[in-house]
Amino acid sequence: KQEVTQIPAALSVPEGENLVLNCSFTDSAIYNLQWFRQDPGKGLTSLLLIQSSQREQTSGRLNASLDKSSGRSTLYIAASQPGDSATYLCAPLGGGATNKLIFGTGTLLAVQP
Amino acid sequence: DGGITQSPKYLFRKEGQNVTLSCEQNLNHDAMYWYRQDPGQGLRLIYYSQIVNDFQKGDIAEGYSVSREKKESFPLTVTSAQKNPTAFYLCASTPPGGEAFFGQGTRLTVV
């Protein structure tokens, strides 16, 4: 059974700092891994998708890496802004013989102006 | 516009009543998923379907039922057997091995 852990559970940083969010998963037989952002009371917005054959993906100030063999992914946010405040979730797709999309518990990020 | 539509946005259920949440997608995705989110917690998988007329239980399927009669539709019924249904429900879809897209969610409250 795929289990996904995100560390830290919560993070508060001053504006302008670079930061790293961590995601680990127990079953490395995945198709891809996706990072999402969720604002309070809202649905999920996709940030980055990394295919299992890739090592990293970049979009603007965001960079996500994937080490499938060790079951780890990181999301790097450069020059954080108050508008980045949200919950960040990672979700590997697959794991074993299934096509399940399983989520971690998330990291709640607060960027202080 | 392509996307996933969940309805209604807010739903109120009386004790002992069954209610159905709608999820429709026009992305031509094969797989669809239902998740439950409780305050301050992550998403837990209720049911998922990889093809029409087939679906599998997730981690918390008890008290819920689904159908997948059409590729674009994956409705979720919250039955009276679900003792604590108040939560935020999210629907998602993916192409094979591809990017997942989510609806905006339905907030269900028991009154």
Annotation field: number of helices of chain B: 0
Secondary-structure element order of chain B, N to C: EEEEEEEEEEE
Quickly count the helices of chain A.
0
Helix content of chain A: under 10%
Task: State the shape of chain A.
Answer: globular
| Largest sheet: number of strands, sense, barrel closure of chain B | 7 strands, mixed
Strand residues, percent of chain B: over 45%
Q: What is the rounded Rg of chain A?
A: 14 Å
Taking the alpha carbons of the first and last residues of chain A, their distance comes to 41 Å
Helix content of chain B: under 10%
The general outline of chain B is globular
What structural class results from the helix and strand content of chain A? Answer: mainly beta
**Total strand segments of chain B:** 11
State the strand order across the main sheet of chain A.
1-3-8-7-6
Largest β-sheet summary of chain A = 5 strands, antiparallel
Helix and strand sequence of chain A: EEEEEEEEEE
How many beta-strand segments of chain A?
10
Radius of gyration of chain B: 13 Å
Question: Could you please describe the fold and organization of this structure?
Answer:
The complex is a heterodimer of chains A (113) and B (111). By secondary structure, chain A is mainly β. Helices cover 0% and strands 57% of the residues of chain A. Chain A contains no helices and 10 strands. A 5-stranded antiparallel sheet of chain A has the order 1-3-8-7-6, with no helix packed on it. In chain A, β7 and β8 (72-77) form a beta hairpin. The radius of gyration of chain A is 14 Å and the shape is globular. The relative contact order of chain A is 0.35. By secondary structure, chain B is mainly β. Chain B is 0% helix and 50% strand. Chain B contains no helices and 11 strands. Chain B has strands spanning 4-7, 10-13, 19-25, 31-37, 43-51, 54-57, 64-66, 76-78, 87-94, 101-102, 106-110. In chain B, strands 2, 4, 5, 6, 9, 10 and 11 form a 7-stranded mixed sheet that branches. In chain B, strands 1-3-8-7 form a 4-stranded antiparallel sheet, with no helix packed on it. The termini of chain B are far apart. The model of chain B has no long low-confidence stretch (mean pLDDT 93). Classes of the chains: A mainly beta (113), B mainly beta (111). At the A-B interface, β4, β5 and β9 of A face β4, β5, β9 and β10 of B.
